[in-house]
Specification:
Helix content is 43%, strand content 17%. With 88 residues, the protein is of the alpha+beta class. Strands 1-2-3 form a three-stranded antiparallel β-sheet.
Length: 88
């Protein structure tokens, strides 16, 4: 998987928000907001290919979380990001 080009994480009024660049990525019906952990993952995954297992490794390295929970959370996050079109 890879984060699609045209999306950028910005801090807007203290919130982590995904901003789309280019008309093909614009959907004004939703605002994509990330919590601190999702933003941490996003920044760690920029410009590289990754797997759900790799996402879990990043979480276990950066947070006090067991591998099983990290993998479950990574699978959920990847599914959400795929559904809204942030990754390919």
């Amino acid at each position: 998987m890879r984060i699609k080009k045209g999306f950028e994480l910005r801090n807007v009024c203290g919130e982590h928000v995904i901003v789309a660049h280019g008309l093909e990525n614009v959907d004004f019906s939703k605002i994509i907001s990330l919590n601190d952990t999702a933003a941490y993952l996003w920044n760690a995954l920029l410009e590289r290919d990754f797997t759900e297992e790799g996402m879990a490794d990043i979480l276990t390295e950066g947070y006090e979380v067991d591998a099983e929970t990290a993998l479950s959370d990574s699978r959920n996050m990847a599914a959400q990001w795929k559904e809204i079109g942030l990754i390919e």
